[in-house]
Every structure is written in structure tokens, then in C-alpha cells.
Amino acid sequence: MKNKKVLAFVLFIFLLLVPVQAFAVDFDIMEVQIEAQLNEDGTADVTEQFTYEFEDEFNGITRSLIPKEGTSIEDFTASDSRRDLEVEAEDGLYKIYRSGNDGDSIQVELNYRIVGAVEKFEDGAEFYWPFFDASNESEYGDMTITVIPPAPATETEALGYGEAFDTSNVTEDGTAVFDLGNVPSEKNADIRAIFEPELFPGVTAQDGTVRDELADDREELENEAAAFARNQQIAKSAGIPAIVILGALLIGLVLFSWLKASRRKRSVQSGTYEFFVPEGSMSIPALLHFTNPSYVAANGMSAAILDLMRKGKIRQLSEEHFELADRSTDHPHEAVLIGLLFDTIGDGQEFTLEQVEIYTKNELNHEDYNAATAEWNKEVKAEVTAHDFYEKHVGLRWAVGILSAVFIGLAIVSGIYGLLPWMALSIALAMLALGFAIGYSPITPEGHRVRYEWRSMKNAMDQLPTEQWERLTMDEKQRAYAYLLGSDQKTAERKANAFTAAEPANDVSGFAMNPILMTAVFVSASTTTSSSASASGGGMAGTGGGVGGGGGGSGAF
Length: 557
What we know:
Layout: H1 3-17, E1 27-38, E2 44-54, E3 58-66, E4 72-79, E5 86-90, E6 93-100, E7 105-115, E8 118-120, E9 125-132, E10 140-148, E11 157-162, E12 168-170, E13 176-183, E14 189-195, H2 211-268, H3 284-291, H4 297-310, E15 314-316, E16 321-324, H5 332-345, E17 350-352, H6 353-361, H7 366-386, H8 394-416, H9 420-439, H10 445-461, H11 466-470, H12 474-487, H13 489-500, H14 515-529, E18 551-556
Parallel strand pairs: 1-10
Antiparallel strand pairs: 1-2, 2-7, 3-6, 3-18, 4-7, 5-6, 8-9, 9-14, 10-13, 11-14, 12-13, 15-16, 16-17
Helix pairs in contact: 1-9, 2-8, 2-9, 3-4, 3-7, 3-12, 4-12, 4-14, 5-7, 6-14, 8-9, 10-12, 12-13
């Protein structure tokens, strides 16, 4: 089984699913107390107390305030228990400077005025406000919001929306208190409180009523909550058993497949190994690609040149100078490599390593070089694929792929109805199923044999005595050393002199005089022509997702 490819894919999906906020200060907001004192002129004087605990050094906290349409925020100040704090404001984002060290716990008080906070109607005056919205990236620990009328009230009504639903109560003096408790990040919560209109003589009354609207909203929210509770119970009674049963089936299938593949591999490796060079059933580049998980194309190209020299297709004239002896090839990737080296870089008949260096140092040639090496790699993979070393199991993979989609559906349902541990388990099972569906192609017994023989040969060559090397035929030496050069350059470099000293320098079918230099040139060419790009972006406070386009959030820096 392609275990490493599957693991890489699962890790890639995991990284996509887990949110990462780079370079952010690590902190927790343990407690939030917000008090809105309403005034007779319809303004609201707001006091917010935030308790932060930091796990990193920090410079301060942030508070974004996005006012509702038709309102404004004025006179924003900040302080802690010792002093007033410096505030920097830009486009609704307030940076409050209060530095400290990791492990510090601080309490910061914010004060500001909302102008136009209260709207008055025929049957009541309402304060309807979003102190934060879904743009907030921080979790609030213990949050309480208190709305105090200008004078004691007897006809107060209160209703919370979103995370504030079913959190309100009214005190004896008519104060509305919303006890939200823990509030996750990226959530909306609108606060609505209605008082007697005569408490706000400085606010001009509008036509119409507001209490009936609040009553309708309350009924609708209660009906939605009841329906949610019913559906949540259905999700628990049906979804959880489905996750457990299907998850056990999937894990059992994966374990069974893994054990079967492991037994097959062990059966091939059960015998006692004695050094020999395996038969040449594939080209050296294809063998390298199939047998080496750390296969590097640049090293493979050097090995491919040695393989073409062994076949008599390329002749070496000097340490850096090569001549084309025969254009006919056994595999398409050999034709691609000859075209790159002799036709694109060389003069059609010869090329030198110096020409490779000059060509790849010119940025105008990078695209063509990379395209040719990519085509060469593709054709090398095609040769491996043609040998059918991997079992297909198309039906099984499709079935597990469908199972992955089922787990994704169960994760969505679990998330909607607040079953977060089961949602996390469903996501993990979906990733496992998807990885299995994409990557499950167990190696055939023949494939295991080929891998075992060539890998064992490479390992044995690390300590192979010179006399045992000299007993090999010329073809065996060439295939073995080309494979070693492409798979383990360090061992190849150590063995280069011992393995090539006995070979006549003028033997056109022999080794490259300096294969290590050749590999270094292609590695350098690959590095030079590689390019990377990065992009970054950011945003600022804008339109909120709360009532009236308002909202806000909290953070630290």
C-alpha cells in the first residue's frame, strides 16, 4: 500500500481543516462584563471590562466596534487598574496599548458612548444592539451584558438573538441582564431591550409599535429552538449509531487491508539474502521511482544517462563531454531526455555538462527546462504503471469513497446540531476513508520482490568488498552502480573510486569518469530552475453581521 502517500494526503487535508492564525498572540478572554447605561437623550454610555490571560509576550489588546446604521461611536477611552491607556483608532478598530509577559492576567476597562442608541416608538423605546458579530475571531469566556434604563422601569421586555437567545432576565428595577456565559468565536448575538417610551423624553418618537414585533420574534425563536431540539434528538438517536457502526466497519477494513499487505511483504522478505544484481526488467529511472520513496529526479537523470551509456545510446568523450550514438530508445522517457540534452541544450549530436550549467542559469530557459523534466518524470511514471505493480481494487475504493461522503454528511449534521465531538470523529473518519479510497493500491507479490531485491542490493553495496564487485559482469556493474548513484549518492561517492578504478578509461561502454560531478550538475540545475511564490493578505473592520450592519470583536497583539 502506498502508506507514505496516503499519510501525506491525510496530513494535507488535516491542515486545510484546522484553522491557523500565524504570528498571533496566544491568549484567552476569561471574563467579559458589558454595561450599557441608557440616557434620556437616547445615547448609551457603555463600560466594558475584559479579563485576558496571556501565554505569550504581548503589546496590547484590540476591540473592533462597528456601529449600526444611523448611529456612531464617540469618546472611546481605555484604562487598567493603574492608569489610562494609549488608544490608536482606525476604521472602527481600536488598539489599546498595554504590554506584558507570558503568563500575565490583565483587566482592561473600555468606555465609549453610542449616539443614537435608542429608538422610540408609540408603545416603547428599544435598545437593539450587536456588541459583537460573526467577524469576531476570539472566544469569550464568561460574558454578561447589562442594559440599564435612565430610571427604574416597570414594563421592560428583553430578548436575545443568536448566542444571546434564552439568556435574558429582567430585574425589579427594569434592568435587562443577558447572561451569555461562554461564547464561541465567529458567532452573532444581538441584544434587544424595550422600556417605557416616557423614560426617553429627548428622543423623537417614530410611528408604529415595537412590542408586538418582539413578541413575534420571541415566538419564532422559541419555535425554532423547539424544532432544533427535536432534530438534535433525531441526530443523536440515528447519527451517533451510524457513525459508530460505519466507523468500526471502516477501521476494520483498513486494519484488515494493512495486515494483508504486511503479510504479503513479509512473505517476500522471508528468505536469506545473498548479494546479487537483479535482472533488468525495467529501466534504471523507473526502478528508482518505484523502489525509492525519497527518489530525486535530478539524481535519477544522472542514473538515466549511465543507463543509456550502458545500452550504447550515449558515448562519453571526456569527463564532461557526451556524444549521441543512437537515437532509437526502449522507452519514451529516454527519448525525452535525449531531446533535452542533445537537441535543446546541445548541438543535436553532442552536449557538455558546462552547457547544462550555462543553459539553466539563464532564467529565460527555466520554463522549457522544467517542462522537459516534468515530461521526463511523467514518462518514467508511465513505465512503472505499465508493469502493474499495484492492484487496482476499483470497486472497493469507490465504495470507501462513497463512505467518505457519508461521513462528511454525518459531520455536517453533527455540527449543525451541536454534537461537536461526533462531528470531529466524523471528519477524522471521512479523511481516513478518503485517503484509503485515493491511495489504496497494494503492491503485488512481484512488485514486492522487485523492491526487496533492489533495495537489498543497494544496502549490501555500502559494505561490499572490492573483490566481490570485480566478480560481476560489466552489465551488472553498470546497472548496480547507476541504481546506487540515483538512490544513495553518498554511498555512490564513497564507492566511486573503488568501483571504477579497475575499468579502462577508454571503454565506451564503461562508467562515466566522474558520475558524482554529473549528478552535482543536474542537482544544481534543478535547484536553479525551481521557483516559489508566496502571497499574503489582511483585512480591517468593515460592515458587521449583527443587527443594522453593526458588530465587532476582540483580539490582542
